[in-house]
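quick one
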Amino acid sequence: MPGAGGNHASWGGLNANASRVIRPAAHENLIAPQEPYLPFGAGRSYGDSGLPAGGCLVDLQGMNRILSFDPATGLMRAEAGATLADILERAIPLGWFLPVTPGTRFVTLGGAIANDVHGKNHHRAGSFGAHVRAMSLVRSDGTRRLCSPEQDGDWLRATIGGMGLTGLIGWAEIQLLRISSPDVMQESLPLAGLSDFFDRLDETDGRFEYGVAWLDSLATGKSLGRGVMMRANHAAAADGGAGASRPGGRRLSVPFTPPVPLVSRLTMRVFNSFYRWRALSGPQERKMPWASFFYPLDAVAHWPRAYGPRGLRQHQSVLPRMKAESAVARLLEAARAAGHASFLTVLKSFGQMPGAGLLSFARPGVTLTLDFAYRGAATDELLDRLDAITLAAGGAVNPYKDARMSAETFRASFPNWRDVLPFLDPLAESRFSRRVGLTGGA
Ligand SMILES: Cc1cc2nc3c(=O)[nH]c(=O)nc-3n(C[C@H](O)[C@H](O)[C@H](O)COP(=O)(O)OP(=O)(O)OC[C@H]3O[C@@H](n4cnc5c(N)ncnc54)[C@H](O)[C@@H]3O)c2cc1C
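structure w/ flavin-adenine dinucleotide:
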């Protein structure tokens, strides 16, 4: 999905249209531009929170050295453009893993912090920002701060989840997780309907480090919310089984963008039943290579192309536990009633740990993620309805998956949004921040 601004685009297919692109090569020489700008990681955010509002784009991917790693303590310091894949490559052979990882390893360290991303283990580990021990922050007023929980901790909390609006992260130090084996012991079980997921939530969170459910978005009636629950623990060194610890390189690719979305109801039916079938017919418990468990989507290069030339939109909500089951049902029904079945429908639990940042999305509750091929106004109307259902249940909508939420939705999702204002870099601005009034004189 190339476009202006040096072919930079969001994962959902929005072109950056930046005035120009700056590519710093090393954190030692990093300076923030003296013109409107936005930092850019690997462009794995779906909507427009990672795209500049007409200003220049600072692409940090060339700044990607691992600066230090202590295999005795698991403390790793890396430049902000290093990817989680770069970190895993160094850490795994020495018995360490990421403390938290999103569903792709091709995001940068800076991007993971700036969105305070979450993984399948929020109930155990919280979000990514909770594991940041220190970082550098470079701002357009020429200041360079070393932030840690002990020093300039308020700047650290504003930058974690701050969506690139507080300045440029130059490097960060994170605490990795000690593991005996990078493989996981996965248990998969079929879910006959939504209540199966909720009935098993406490047991899953209690017994497993990781948990995620993929739902069949075409199921209706009593089967609404049927799917597969995958729950796992890191394998012990002594665990046998077939899982080899290979990184699981890309095997498939969507070679070009087709003129119409390939993600039709038919392909979804096949996909969804495949996931159910695997759980029903496969072994209940098996050892899996880490990449297959954590990053199944990384195995298909350029998969957003399957959504066609108009790209995709993702909607992610977090719902308070008490109201989650009925709200998830309403969200699934609204999507189906609009004739907009979601290709990838994912349900996860968030634990009690508060967000590490002022604007962290992850908070106690249950989170539902829906993916839609973009069909213009019809999709936008549906997304508005999903926002309304989410807010009515006391939930919040994820800003880094969004491309159209209103200022009202943002403010209802982040009632404390004003707390971050004193920390914003006056020259940093995204299309999202301008739209919701976070920047531009709110
Ligand atoms: C297949 C897939 C699965 C995903 N699964 C999950 C998931 O499970 N959980 C989850 O939370 N997210 C998930 N995501 C979303 C993704 O993890 C986040 O959007 C992530 O932040 C993207 O990082 P990036 O490096 O691509 O940064 P970008 O998308 O380029 O930028 C993200 C934000 O970080 C800012 N930024 C980037 N670098 C810096 C820097 N050096 N200094 C300051 N600000 C910076 C940008 O301005 C922007 O606001 C998924 C995305 C994909 C494509």
